[in-house]
Amino acid sequence: MISNCSRLFSKTFLVNSKPTYPAFSLRRALSIHLLQVRAMASESAASSTFKKIQIQRDDTTFDAYVIGKEEAPGIVVLQEWWGVDFEIKNHAQKISQFDTGYKALIPDLYRGKVGLDVAEAQHLMDGLDWQGAVKDIQSSVNWLKANGSQKVGVIGYCMGGALAIASSVLVPGVDAVVAFYGVPSPELADPVHAKAPVQAHFGELDNVVGFSDVKTGKALEEKLKASGVPHEVHIYPGVAHAFMNKSPEGVQRRKNMGLTDEDDVAVELAWTRFRNWMTRFLSI
């Protein structure tokens, strides 16, 4: 299933970003040159602390990366449109060290591919099997529960944020969800049918209309109210899309996309809210 999320990103970042990225039509014309996918590049030094595993899904397997305490509550960490890169691994490592510790698991939704610029990331997101990604999340939740985690949450960013909310609707066994700047299309998963608690975070200046702008965040809140699940929706003044990306590489990448806002206070507040949410719903 192809979500409309990727088309919304096309309009925002391929049109509004700096000239170093080609316009949408030019990108299509020169795709043979611009859409080369390079495997697992620019990873953080922390990558060596991850254990690479294979998880069974239907009649196939996919790679995942695990970090944290063996018997701790589990958290599935879902990638942005870039893939499993340095930033999502930074997030997972940080999560694994919070409070009394978590076991964080990153499923590789792109099967080893990473986008190194906006055009490549767009190409990968265009090609994602969204329903298949939901199955990957289900298999990841199942793996954590079969390997020492009595309770399991899901967190995602951007594309992964939309999938995290989808998991609250479609994935049995999820005990809590946190989503950053991403809402799924109703064709994939309507949040009015959420079954797990959902906390969502949005930047006031986010201009990805229909996916992560303020209007979409407020519409999500109304749907979550109708669902009856515990929920929180937070909007952070003065920040735009992907405001949680604070590594030097992540900050520079945002600037290359025209996202120059930085607010350490908002980032720390969001992490505190995440910690409180997961403590509330994943504690035994």
UniProtKB/TrEMBL annotation:
All copies of domain Dienelactone hydrolase, residue ranges: 62-281
Coiled coil: none
InterPro entries according to UniProt: AB_hydrolase_fold, Dienelactn_hydro, Dienelactone_hydrolase-like
Sequence intervals crossing the membrane: none
One Pfam family of this chain: DLH
The protein's name: Alpha/beta-Hydrolases superfamily protein
Organism: Abeliophyllum distichum
Domain of life: Eukaryota
